[in-house]
């Protein structure tokens, strides 16, 4: 039987998780991930990796909730397995606090995370500048170990990873049957998609092992997310800013905002600055497109534009993309077996 050859463009979180999902659910195919930047040099390496959804205004909420639930349940399985220490995934409890009482006190994802509840008056005493708060338990991925673990799983399933820049999807036409586009912000050039743009995020990674709870200001701009190796302090959201160089004044501002929420962070050590560009769209692009040139056709499955919430939904979107790829593989097999007249 001819093996279907699938190229996944992109080796960030979305490319690797989609490639693993394909290799585990579509038998008899060969999966190759191709990317110009590999871990630790992708946006996905910079992220805090916490599972708190970002809202995509043009994606139906029920779909976002399904993606989030599937991702949450998937990480829960990893956490209950012997894979957990290598994968760098852990449960984390903490607080989301608001300076003004939000209109929507129960977000759509409140019944997916564990133990969601309004904070008590006694808990709120820790945050004298805030009026309202929510406590819950969710997952966090330590991004670099998680990406490494995904890559290892892909290789164990027979997949490959190649470093290469793609200027035009047609470069892949002679070697692959199906292309999966997980190129994030790269789709602006590669697919001429003007709807995707960067939202710059600068964060600090610090050593502060006494911090065990997450704290997130309700507007999502200031946050403290402890991981296994370090604590991520954030952040910024700078629309259309492509600058990947850290700004020292911004770092000072982040540290001072985080210390206002958690004064013990003044003793944090080994401060490293990281910058990433969130690949933002009003809706994640998850669809099949058939490119046509001359008489040739090239099926492309898009899975990109996860903005500030890729970690929160990655397994859900990987499964939906894999379903589209399965349909494509079935069509290809039918055409291979069609009797030639
Ligand atoms: P990327 O990681 O950017 O990967 C894109 C890949 O495509 C790269 O390998 C690149 O080399 C490749 N590529 C692009 N163009 C080409 C080309 N022409 N040829 C070959 N390869 C190409 N999300 C959460 O859910 N929780 C969080 O706590 C969180 N925190 C964040 C904090 C910051 C500061 C930032 C910046 C983001 C955060 N995010 C968070 C968002 C999350 O990081 C992104 O949604 C996610 O990483 C997007 O993954 P991606 O694989 O689409 O993109």
What descriptive keywords fit this protein?
alpha/beta; Rossmann fold; 14-stranded mixed beta sheet; 14 strands
3D structure, described in words:
- It is a single chain.
- The protein is elongated.
- The longest helix has 28 residues, at 310-337.
- The model has no long low-confidence stretch (mean pLDDT 96).
- Helix 1 (13-25) runs parallel beside helix 6, helix 1 (13-25) crosses helix 9 and helix 3 crosses helix 9.
- Strands 1, 2, 3, 4, 5, 6, 7, 8, 9, 10, 11, 12, 13 and 14 form a 14-stranded mixed sheet that branches.
- Strand 10 (223-226) and strand 11 form a beta hairpin.
- The chain has a single domain, classed as NAD(P)-binding Rossmann-like Domain (Rossmann fold).
- With 341 residues, the protein is of the alpha/beta class.
- The chain has helices at 13-25, 43-46, 61-79, 84-87, 121-124, 143-156, 187-190, 248-261, 310-337, and strands at 4-9, 29-35, 89-98, 114-118, 132-141, 160-163, 178-181, 197-207, 214-217, 223-226, 231-234, 238-239, 269-293, 296-306.
- Flavin-adenine dinucleotide (FAD) binds at residues 9-15, 34-37, 42-44, 46-50, 165-166, 182-186, 190, 201, 203, 235, 276, 278-279, 304, 306-312.
Supply the number of structural domains: 1
Order of helices and strands: EHEHHHEEHEHEEHEEEEEHEEH
- What CATH calls the topology is Rossmann fold
Oligomer: single chain
Q: Report the count of strand segments.
A: 14
CATH first level: which class? Alpha Beta
Helix vs. strand class: alpha/beta
The CATH level-2 architecture is identified as 3-Layer(aba) Sandwich
Biggest β-sheet, characterized? 14 strands, mixed
Rg on CA atoms, Å: 21 Å
SS strand fraction:
25-35%
Q: Quick one: CATH superfamily?
A: NAD(P)-binding Rossmann-like Domain
Helix tally equals 9
Overall average pLDDT: 96
């Amino acid at each position: 039987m001819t093996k279907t050859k699938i190229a996944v463009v992109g080796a960030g979180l979305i490319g690797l998780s989609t490639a693993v999902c394909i290799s585990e659910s579509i038998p008899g195919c060969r999966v190759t991930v191709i990317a110009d930047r590999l871990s630790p040099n992708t946006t996905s390496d910079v992220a805090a990796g916490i599972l708190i959804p970002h809202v995509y205004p043009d994606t139906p909420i029920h779909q976002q909730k399904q993606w989030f639930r599937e991702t949450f349940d998937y990480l829960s399985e990893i956490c209950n397995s012997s894979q957990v220490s290598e994968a760098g995934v852990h449960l984390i409890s903490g607080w989301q606090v608001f300076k003004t009482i939000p209109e929507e006190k129960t977000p759509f994802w409140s019944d997916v995370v564990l133990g969601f509840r309004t904070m008590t008056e006694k808990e709120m005493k820790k945050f004298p500048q805030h009026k309202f708060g929510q406590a819950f338990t969710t997952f966090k991925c330590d991004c670099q170990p998680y990406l490494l673990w995904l890559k290892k799983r892909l290789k164990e399933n027979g997949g490959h990873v190649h470093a290469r820049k793609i200027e035009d999807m047609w470069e892949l036409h002679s070697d692959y049957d199906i292309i999966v586009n997980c190129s994030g912000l790269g789709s602006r050039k590669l697919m001429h998609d003007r709807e995707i743009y960067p939202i710059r995020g600068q964060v600090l990674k610090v050593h502060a092992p006494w911090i065990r709870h997450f704290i997130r200001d309700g507007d999502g701009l200031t946050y403290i997310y402890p991981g296994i190796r370090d604590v991520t302090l954030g952040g910024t959201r700078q629309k259309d800013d492509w600058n990947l160089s850290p700004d020292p004044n911004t770092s000072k501002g982040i540290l001072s905002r985080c210390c206002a929420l958690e004064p013990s962070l003044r003793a944090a050590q080994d401060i490293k600055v990281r910058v990433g560009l969130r690949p933002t769209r009003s809706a994640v692009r998850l669809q099949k497109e058939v490119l046509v040139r001359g008489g040739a056709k090239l099926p492309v499955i898009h899975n990109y534009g996860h903005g500030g919430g890729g970690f929160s939904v990655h397994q859900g979107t990987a499964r939906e993309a894999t379903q589209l790829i399965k349909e494509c593989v079935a069509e290809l097999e039918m055409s291979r077996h069609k009797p030639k007249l």
